[in-house]
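Colleagues,

For the teaching module next term, I've prepared a clean inverse folding example: a structure given as tokens, and then the sequence designed for it. I'd like students to try predicting residues themselves before seeing the answer, so please don't circulate the second half yet.
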């Protein structure tokens, strides 16, 4: 078992309050608004989830932010959209790590296009620009979705726009 003691300490010391400081209610409303506005331009369904830290058993098992994002993609049912067009933007605050997981309908067209969005978001987060980083990330994801899945007709909003705080 490979234990990264610095990572474990960072996760144990990143509290729920850290998440509230980084994302006060006004920031969460701005993220929700960005998701709602951008979904009007494409056929995709975007969710944003932020988690302050992983639990000790997850850390001891060596769970990565990517593995956690894949779990949440399923738990939040982001995969359960009519056109397989769900996209999860996941932020693990203790690691300042961003992962984007897309359903197969989107992934087939976008491929590795998410990587640069994740890195730009992480740069903003590293400077403490949480709201700006996430809103810019939502808009960048929307640009890719608009390019590959432009809005054809009004349709139902299949996933909630409200950010998930874990």
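(Answer key — instructors only)
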């Amino acid at each position: 078992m490979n234990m990264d003691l610095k990572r474990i300490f960072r996760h144990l010391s990143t509290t729920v309050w850290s998440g509230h400081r980084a994302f006060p209610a006004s920031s969460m409303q701005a993220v929700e608004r960005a998701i709602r506005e951008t979904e009007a331009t494409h056929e995709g369904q975007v969710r944003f989830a932020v988690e302050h830290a992983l639990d000790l058993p997850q850390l001891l098992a060596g769970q990565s932010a990517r593995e956690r994002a894949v779990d949440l993609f399923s738990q939040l049912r982001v995969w359960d959209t009519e056109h397989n067009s769900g996209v999860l933007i996941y932020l693990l605050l203790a690691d300042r790590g961003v992962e984007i997981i897309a359903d197969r309908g989107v992934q087939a067209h976008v491929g590795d296009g998410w990587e640069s969005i994740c890195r730009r978001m992480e740069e903003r987060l590293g400077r403490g620009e949480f709201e700006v980083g996430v809103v810019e990330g939502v808009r960048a994801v929307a640009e890719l979705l608009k390019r590959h899945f432009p809005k054809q007709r009004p349709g139902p909003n299949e996933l909630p726009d409200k950010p998930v705080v874990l």
